[in-house]
């Protein structure tokens, strides 16, 4: 539980038993890094703890939980994305951007799942800009992620258009894989249809 986690306590625990980072919690099926990434967002202050874990045992960034998710899946599945957390995870293990979970979803699919309506907080300029920056980071780590369909047969560009992703996310996806603009999803819709 991250509620009272202090960096001093974490440092002491990691110094005593660093192998604990490979341990999976019986209830959740997650490692401590998975658990931190579930709650790390732009409103939390967990970047230092995540960085400490990755410096201690970098391979924890690629450990998969019961749902075949790496910590990056959880970090990208947040309403208030934390670009710093995602940058730290990708700097440690960029290949995490191409790990599919049990549903066949990449972290980029999760980053684009939040549907933004004009009345919602997620359309706030700062948050929308953050989503675009996260998409850019994920594509920098693995550009082919723009060519991978999600569990519903949608490419990231269609998913972004369907969910009203910000302009900078759309342009990053087009730059990474422009043919996606011509791609019909399983409903025979083009990204333009979703955008309208």
Sheet with the most strands, sense and barrel status: none
What gap, in angstroms, lies between the N and C termini?
42 Å
Nearest-angstrom radius of gyration?
17 Å
Query: What is the count of DSSP helices, taking H or I runs of 4+ residues?
Result: 10
- Count of DSSP strands: 0
Q: Bin the strand percentage.
A: under 5%
| Shape descriptor | elongated
Give the class from helix and strand content and strand pairing. mainly alpha
Give the proportion of residues in helices.
40-55%
Order of helices and strands: HHHHHHHHHH
Average pLDDT number: 88
Q: Key features?
A:
196 residues
Could you outline the blueprint of secondary structure elements for this entry?
Layout (H helix, E strand, L loop, with lengths): L6 H10 L15 H8 L7 H10 L14 H6 L6 H10 L14 H5 L13 H17 L14 H7 L4 H10 L14 H5 L1
Helix pairs in contact: 1-3, 3-5, 5-7, 7-9, 8-9
Put the structure in a nutshell.
By secondary structure, this protein is mostly helical. The chain has helices at 7-16, 32-39, 47-56, 71-76, 83-92, 107-111, 125-141, 156-162, 167-176, 191-195.
């Amino acid at each position: 539980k991250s509620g009272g986690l202090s960096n001093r306590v974490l440092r002491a625990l990691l110094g005593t038993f660093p192998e604990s980072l490979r341990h999976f919690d019986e209830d959740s099926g997650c490692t401590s890094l998975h658990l931190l990434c579930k709650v790390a967002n732009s409103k939390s202050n967990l970047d230092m703890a995540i960085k400490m874990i990755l410096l201690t045992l970098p391979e924890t960034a690629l450990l998969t939980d019961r749902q075949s998710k790496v910590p990056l899946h959880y970090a990208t599945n947040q309403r208030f994305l934390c670009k710093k957390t995602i940058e730290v995870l990708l700097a440690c293990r960029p290949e995490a951007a191409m790990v599919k979970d049990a549903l066949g979803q990449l972290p980029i699919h999760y980053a684009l799942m939040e549907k933004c309506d004009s009345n919602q907080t997620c359309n706030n300029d700062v948050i929308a800009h953050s989503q675009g920056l996260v998409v850019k980071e994920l594509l920098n780590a693995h550009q082919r992620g723009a060519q991978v369909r999600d569990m519903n047969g949608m490419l990231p560009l269609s998913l972004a258009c369907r969910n009203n992703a910000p302009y900078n996310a759309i342009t990053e996806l087009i730059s990474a894989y422009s043919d996606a603009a011509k791609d019909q999803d399983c409903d025979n819709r083009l990204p333009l249809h979703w955008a309208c």
